[in-house]
């Protein structure tokens, strides 16, 4: 664990917020799956924009407007390279993963889904990749079907045989509750044979492991900047150029048009066709700085650190009497989060009591109520890691959990 400690300790130095205390104790931040903390480099990138070249993009001909436009478009190129998209034209900036999925639902879904079509998703989705498809099936009279998961938290791939003709298959890359990393390539291959367009919710994957959209072959992929060290309010929709070209815009107004007269308008080229109004320039620049930061570390190293921490957490926490966790037992098959319950203690009470020790964890249904009902529970507690976490934080957590148990069971 020495190498994991050293890696995390070095990284933490760049994160001002991790130096603060909570209730007189050092903050132990174990909720990066909800949102990640930001390194000084990202904070500086946002500050630098406002101090040096704040101007609206794509319209001014003066110098700082050109600088802002160039920086915004460079950020798009950086995102494209980061996930190995063929072209920056395939990268649409949105507010977050949720908006990216809604964009597909409205722009692609409304014109391509017909009554009786099958929309397929899974029982392990975040509400963001479930509610839009419920909505689409209601609007178009399509049938929404689900692939279940087994005891270990893996998708029941054999159930795919039941669906031979599918219009759309939307699934998560990595579950924000079970931690399961799904076999995306295999799922995309199946979808192609079933005639389905694929939407991959990569909110818990792109921040934590190398992701290559060309290698995966998916049609659409959504993720959020704030979970990968970037600012809030910036997200990404990756879409294959051909599909984006064919789609109608999601929102209309300024910026997304090429020409307008009193009768009608001609849409702009992709990706700008999907970016109506003034975009989140500071967000895009902050995201670009976050990508620089992650690339300096290397996504393989990011993943390795999280696998080791997860393994350490599972080994440590499983020794606590009454501890149950959900999802795969092998750390290699899960992302860096663990959802659990401690017998006899409600997860909300647990999170509130841990906060007294300065430990921040998530409790509740984690925006995945149907998944929890499949597990037969109303709620769970969840810890999640990122590059700045260290094994001693797992030790603090374990000690605090044992203390809470002692007090409550006394
Ligand atoms: C798997 C998954 N999908 C989608 C989302 C939604 O992300 P956002 O709220 O940034 O749109 C989350 C956020 O927790 C998530 O974990």
From TrEMBL:
Cited PROSITE patterns: AA_TRANSFER_CLASS_5
Family designation: Belongs to the class-V pyridoxal-phosphate-dependent aminotransferase family. Csd subfamily.
Keywords: Pyridoxal phosphate, Transferase
Listed name of the protein: Cysteine desulfurase
Record-listed E.C. numbers: 2.8.1.7
Pfam families: Aminotran_5
GO annotation terms (biological process): cysteine metabolic process
EC class name: transferase
Keyword Acyltransferase: no
């Amino acid at each position: 664990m020495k190498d994991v400690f050293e890696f995390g300790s070095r990284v933490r130095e760049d994160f001002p917020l991790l130096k603060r205390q909570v209730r007189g104790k050092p903050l132990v931040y174990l909720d990066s799956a909800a949102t990640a903390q930001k390194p000084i480099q990202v904070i500086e990138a946002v500050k630098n924009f406002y101090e040096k070249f704040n101007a609206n993009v794509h319209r001014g001909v003066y110098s700082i407007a050109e600088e802002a436009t160039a920086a915004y478009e460079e950020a798009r190129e950086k995102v494209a390279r980061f996930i190995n998209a063929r072209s920056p034209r395939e990268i649409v900036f949105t507010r977050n993963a949720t908006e990216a999925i809604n964009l597909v639902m409205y722009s692609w879904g409304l014109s391509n889904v017909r009554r009786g079509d099958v929309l397929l998703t899974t029982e392990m989705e975040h509400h963001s990749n479930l509610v839009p498809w419920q909505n689409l099936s209601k609007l178009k009279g399509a049938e929404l079907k689900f692939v279940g998961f087994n005891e270990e938290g893996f998708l029941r791939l054999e159930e795919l045989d039941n669906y031979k003709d599918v219009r759309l298959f939307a699934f998560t890359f990595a579950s924000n509750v079970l931690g399961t990393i799904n076999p995306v390539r295999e799922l995309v291959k199946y979808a192609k044979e079933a005639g389905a367009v694929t939407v991959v919710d990569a909110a818990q994957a792109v921040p934590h492991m190398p992701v290559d959209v060309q290698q995966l072959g998916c049609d659409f992929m959504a993720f959020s900047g704030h979970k990968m060290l970037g600012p809030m309010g910036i997200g990404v929709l990756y879409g294959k150029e051909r599909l984006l070209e064919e789609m109608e815009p999601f929102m209309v107004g300024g910026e997304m048009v090429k020409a307008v007269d009193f009768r009608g308008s001609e849409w702009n080229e992709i990706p700008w066709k999907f970016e109506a109004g003034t975009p989140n320039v500071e967000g895009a620049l902050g995201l670009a700085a976050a990508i620089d930061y992650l690339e300096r570390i290397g996504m393989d190293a990011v993943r390795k650190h999280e696998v080791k921490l997860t393994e350490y957490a599972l080994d440590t926490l499983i020794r606590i009497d009454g501890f149950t966790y959900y999802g795969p037992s092998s750390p290699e098959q899960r992302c860096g989060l663990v959802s659990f319950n401690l017998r006899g203690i409600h997860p909300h009470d647990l999170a509130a009591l841990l906060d007294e020790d300065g430990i921040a964890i998530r409790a509740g249904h984690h925006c995945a109520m149907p998944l929890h009902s499949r597990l037969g529970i109303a709620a769970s507690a969840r810890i999640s890691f990122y590059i700045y976490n260290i094994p001693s934080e797992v030790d603090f957590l374990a000690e605090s959990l044992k203390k809470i148990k002692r007090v409550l069971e006394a």
